[in-house]
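pipeline/complex-builder :: batch 7 item 3
reading input block
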Amino acid sequence: MPAPAQRRLIFAHIDEPGYTNDLACYLRHGGYEVLKKAVTRKPEELIDEVKKSGLRGRGGAGFPCGVKWGLVDRKSGKPIYLIVNADESEPGTFKDRYIMHQDPHQLIEGTMISCFANNVKQAYIYIRGEMPHGARILEKAIAEARAANFVGPNILGTSYSCEIFVHRGAGAYICGEETGLIESLEGKRANPRIKPPYFPAVLGLYQCPTIVNNVETLCHVKYIAEHGGEAYTKIGTPGNTGTRIFCVSGHVQRPGYYEFEAGRITLGQLLNEVCGGPLPGRTFKAVIPGGSSAKIMRFGERYKGKRKVGAEMVDYDWGVEDVPMDFDSLAMIGTMGGSGGVIVMDDSVNMVEALANINAFYSHESCGQCTPCREGALWMKKITTRMVHGHARPEDAALLKSVADQIPGRTICAFGEACSWPTQSFIAKFGDEFKQYPEAKKTAKPADAPALI
Amino acid sequence: MNLKSATLQAIDEVITHYPSKRSATLPLLHLIQEDVGYIPEDAIPWIAAKLEIQPINVYEVVTFYPMFRRKPIGRRHIKVCRTLSCALLGGYKTCAAFEQEFNTHRGEVSPDGEVTIDFVECLASCGTAPVVLIDDDLHEKVDGAKAKQLSDQIKQEAATRR
């Protein structure tokens, strides 16, 4: 079956010739019209639209946005904060970068609509430190929006006021975790908070109710405010509404970002048709479908079980290429849609070395607060690095697995899962390659095999 | 530590963005690093006094976040992405090419003082791998040849300045 056409809701103007990131251009394309209508409506109506839409967060967890907003403590009498999570840092993910650099006003409009709906008076955009230009572009865009009365006091002549400030991170991946981000915004080390009691919706920034939403999620809110929650559910598939932006990187002919209706494209269509298939003379070996912490898929394996279609349970028997790219299907086969970062590896890649690369990342980024994660991530890195650069032993696979199995569920935040899933899944899917590695490394590598660690 | 008056002004302004002064710790560290080139020892008590917190509160932040450095670096900072998508397309070769061009190792200041090369983790531009951040500017699809071209450019600018 041929791949469907892209459906660009959020990336409508990305890479469009002549489209610039200033206010004048945004206004020429109908900018801030949705905000103008939104501030004449009741805030509860807007929240209802988002609830109806079924919008799921695009940062990685896929948590329903309307539910998140519904959990906010509105009776505490404390101010409610909204934080835009622009700390895009899950390896393989690069969608928010383009929204902020090329279409910052779309994000600001989505943010202001969300703030109005939730009676937020102060929002912060937490952008990762490695995007200094992005921070400046956002600051300029906010200044333009403020001058045009879309941000700041008495927005569009109403009694509603809301300010946005940009806050830069400084190179720590853990700031993408919402409670770590909040600690960081309070000027501290980004050690995630324990939940309960520190659910951001109740005890977030400065111990006040706080909403943390991903950049792309807030852009979807703008679309929902414009077209209605009901209309949004017609896009995508039930339970996985709207579009998803897939960021494809690694060994394909045409890496890049592609926006499709959620669940309407399979992994095979995405990689073979949209991205042009493997590099010349190569075949696909493995793919990580949702950012580097998602469990790896091995080409050639099959997934079988029963799934719900409408009211009925039907059997499915899928190869890697057949899996629909939505949160639920990917979760069903034991991995995740995560942040939409699809990392592809072909037959030039040695899986021990690929895992060593990933382990070096998670070991570097563990905040160090919980012992299983701090020590476990470090040991997984030490073992895989030793296997590549020092002495490799057949029993290392079992050792790695035993370390990885002792981390998840024993840490304050989901980093424990994120750092152990790669090791667990690489060993489960490519265990033979790990066992044979001591022998395999004695033979010379192909000249074009990339160094990974 | 002698800060430019523009930096001092920016510091006073940014503190007003937050209901709690302590929140301005990261912004102040960024502003000082942009001005001085690194975080000097006396910046820590200075920020603490400015934000009415303890020096340890600033120190623990400086040591947590990879972007803050305690020592001066070369005139230009070359950050090569090390993470998987870039490595799959030759990030390690790119880094080696820069090291060779400037006769230095990552983490060190080159002998001519022009550059410091570092490996960094994912720069969120995996679709145009391998990527390199030189000071504030992102460079995409930096293979060996492009690394040489960017190095030549830096050397040329250095020669003109001398």
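note: The mean pLDDT of chain A is 96.
queue -> next item
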